[in-house]
Write a structure and sequence with these properties.
Layout: E1 6-8, H1 11-21, H2 25-30, E2 33-35, H3 38-45, H4 54-59, E3 63-64
Parallel strand pairs: 1-2, 2-3
């Protein structure tokens, strides 16, 4: 179990988790709070609705931006 209850996560790790596992739900089990900076949201959303990881990112309603 992580030593902290909250994290700030960047684009690279988010996309790597999606590539490796296919979704982000396991993060919700590890942390109480997952903060995604505005710039990271913009980077992921830049791919549009068909961009890699966009649908998984949008489904992860527990992420805070």
């Amino acid at each position: 179990m992580p030593e902290t209850e909250e994290i700030v996560i960047n684009t690279g790790p988010l996309l790597a988790i999606i590539a490796g596992i296919g979704d982000l739900t396991f993060l919700e089990r590890l942390y109480k709070r997952i903060l995604v900076p505005f710039e990271v949201c913009r980077e992921i959303e830049a791919g549009g609705s068909s961009g890699f990881g966009v649908s998984e990112f949008r489904r992860a309603g527990f992420l805070e931006s």
